[in-house]
Specification:
The complex is a heterodimer of chains A (252) and B (315). Chain A contains eleven helices and no strands. The longest helix of chain A has 29 residues. With 315 residues, chain B is of the alpha/beta class. Chain B folds into two domains: 216 residues, Rossmann fold, CATH 3.40.50.300; 63 residues, Alpha-Beta Plaits (2-Layer Sandwich). In chain B, the strands form three sheets. Chain B has a six-stranded mixed sheet, with helices on both faces. In chain B, a hairpin with a 4-residue loop joins strand 11 and strand 12. Chain B is elongated, with a radius of gyration of 23 Å. The chains are: A mainly alpha (252), B alpha/beta (315). At the A-B interface, helix 1 and helix 5 of A face helix 2 and helix 3 of B. The complex binds adenosine-5'-triphosphate and magnesium ion. The site of magnesium ion (MG) has 4 residues of chain B, from helix 1.
Chain lengths: 252, 315
């Protein structure tokens, strides 16, 4: 696997520029969970709406999935655009024996590592807060990584077609933020009007959140397979389209 | 075994009817050329002539639209990785990894080429000396001067010990010292048996470095040969450059017969193409035409270039 070499390069750059990132990735969930989860959670006494668990736990699982989605989206926007047009790292890479496929898969693998660096400390902190109700919760880590990667691959495919970075602002405002808010992150989608519920069912975050909650808070149900299939299909489609678009871009 | 092993000929690159089209624009239009092992081969031509497009097809980073192309005996359409493994590329604009140091740039690139680590370390040390960046080895790339970046890009193109190096305007934007250093290094590479393909806008560079070259204009090859052959074919041996007053200019125009094979009337000068500049100058004085200044020089590739591609800028 030549893609490994890309991971190596990103690791070197990452390690140098963000040595503090591990600390940060522990502090972020601590702050989130104590401020929002516990603070807000103490006001929300209702339990039935959240499947019989305390609000803070419900919220924590939502934030874990939503952060991974957001990281997935983000890592395939400006950083990728920069390597295509501004710094043209990819141009240097395609002149070597690496193929566009190697480059795409290498970058995506690296994004997976970044997601793992986010998800693992987050879940550890959640466990310390007592928000994890099952050993199956460990599986939430690959699930949120899958969620993040599915979003990253799809975004990468989009970024590869762009001439300017303008659409990113638009994308964050009208796609990522609504997804963040309306996919059952902060409250169950049953509270939404029915048309919005239908929309929510189409979003990757909804499926990611549902899976994470089944694994950490509730019991696993057969519908888990459907959620998993959705994410895997999105990832596969993102990879295929992404490699095709990047080839068109880098090998004009 | 790669197909190249079976190709007995000395041609490292063979192109025929090679074309590149970007939607409606034809960037390269049916060009034909052959680059032989061990030579320095040049592409000259005005902006937009199709030099970079041709180089990119050779470098397997732009698929050809039609025609035939073999690089080291292999087809870029089917053997891109194998070709690129034996290729060094210096792109028109630097694309170094600005988040890494000078040395790391070379180390990473060596990895992309699967150069074993020990070999790479040794080679990189040599290369850093070769391009005279020893003092900068641990510095980040961003603050380096243009000339240093260019040298690093050249070093990077050498980490895999390529058989063929593609250099797209290697010295554009460099000061004279830096250019001479690059020329000298390229000359040494040639001596070590590497084949170089180079594009340039500097005619002195082409004249010094290239064994053979082609001139491209509007997507086509319009001339081909060694610098000397081209000068012989498209120019006279010498050029007489005259600065004249307006009346003298008129007088010269009226009695040009037999003075030169060709005359070019520039706003500030008149160029007379002639086998012997001194003889021509003597006859001009005999005819009673006064010259403000007169310079006899050998014809250069620049004269050829301007003759072939024209003096006016067509955009
Ligand atoms: N990726 C591309 N998409 C569309 N058109 C392109 C692309 N690359 C090059 N062209 C066009 O192809 C033509 C030839 O360009 P090319 O870069 O090969 O010229 P060049 O001889 O290298 O010029 P210069 O001396 O300015 O570097 C130009 O008209 C250019 O605009
Ligand atoms: Mg060019």
């Amino acid at each position: 696997m030549r893609a490994r070499k890309i991971v190596r390069r990103n690791w070197l750059v990452h390690w140098r520029s963000r040595r503090s990132s591990l600390l940060l990735s522990v502090l972020t969930p601590v702050m989130f969970l104590s401020a929002m989860g516990l603070g807000l959670g103490s006001l929300v006494q209702e339990r039935n709406a959240f499947g019989g668990v305390e609000y803070a736990a419900f919220f924590a699982t939502g934030i874990l999935a939503a952060s991974c989605m957001q990281t997935g989206f983000f890592s395939a926007t400006y950083p990728v655009m920069s390597k295509i047009t501004w710094q043209r790292n990819y141009e240097a890479l395609v002149a070597s024996p690496l193929s566009v496929r190697d480059i795409f898969l290498g970058e995506l693998s690296w994004m997976g590592i970044v997601l793992a660096q986010l998800a693992i400390p987050f879940l550890a902190v959640m466990t310390l807060f007592g928000f994890v109700h099952s050993f199956a919760a460990v599986l939430a880590i690959p699930v949120v990584i899958l969620l993040g990667l599915a979003c990253a691959a799809a975004t990468f495919a989009f970024t590869a077609t762009l001439q300017t970075d303008e659409p990113f602002t638009w994308m964050f405002r009208f796609i990522v933020t609504p997804l963040f808010l309306l996919s059952g992150t902060f409250f169950p989608i049953a509270e939404l009007p029915s048309w919005a519920q239908v929309l929510a069912h189409l979003t990757p975050l909804f499926h990611g959140v549902e899976l994470v909650r089944m694994l950490t808070l509730y019991d696993l149900e057969v519908t888990a397979l459907w959620h998993l299939t959705y994410l895997l299909v999105l990832l596969a489609a993102g990879i295929m389209l992404g490699i095709r678009n990047l080839e068109r871009r880098l090998l004009p | 075994m790669t197909p190249s092993a079976s190709s007995g000929s000395d041609a490292l690159i063979v192109a025929s009817g090679l074309s590149k089209r970007f939607e409606s624009l034809i960037a390269v239009d049916g060009v034909e050329f052959e680059v032989r092992r061990g030579e320095v081969f040049g592409f000259l031509g005005p902006n937009g002539a199709g030099k970079t497009s041709t180089m990119r097809m050779i470098g397997c980073t732009s698929p050809r639209t039609s025609g035939e192309l073999r690089v080291m005996g292999m087809d870029p359409a089917t053997h891109a990785s194998e070709i690129k493994a034996r290729l060094g590329v210096v792109p028109q604009a630097d694309n170094l990894d600005i988040e890494l140091t000078v040395r790391e740039n070379l180390e990473m690139y060596a990895r992309y080429f699967d150069v074993p680590r020990d070999t790479a370390a040794e080679r990189i040390d040599e290369l850093i000396d070769f391009v005279q960046l020893r003092d900068k080895a641990t510095s980040k790339v961003d603050p380096l001067s243009g000339g240093m970046k260019r040298r690093l890009t050249i070093a990077r193109a050498l980490v895999n010990r390529p058989d063929l190096i593609l250099l797209d305007e290697p010295t554009t934007g460099l000061d004279p010292q830096a250019r001479h250093l690059v020329w000298e290094r390229l000359y040494r590479l040639k001596q070590s048996g590497v084949t170089l393909v180079i594009t340039t806008h500097y005619m002195d560079e082409a004249e010094q470095l290239c064994d053979r070259l082609v001139v491209m204009d509007k997507a086509k090859i319009v001339a081909e040969g060694s610098p000397r052959q081209l000068i012989e074919r498209y120019s006279t041996r010498e050029v007489l450059e005259l600065r004249l007053t307006d009346p003298a200019r008129k007088k010269l125009a009226a009695s040009l017969d037999g003075l030169a094979e060709r005359a070019e009337w520039l706003p500030d000068r008149v160029l007379l193409y002639t086998p012997s500049g001194d003889t021509a100058l003597a006859s001009i004085h005999e005819r009673g035409i006064e010259t403000d200044s007169a310079l006899v020089r050998r014809a250069t590739l620049e004269d050829v270039f301007l003759t072939i591609t024209g003096r006016s800028l067509i955009e």
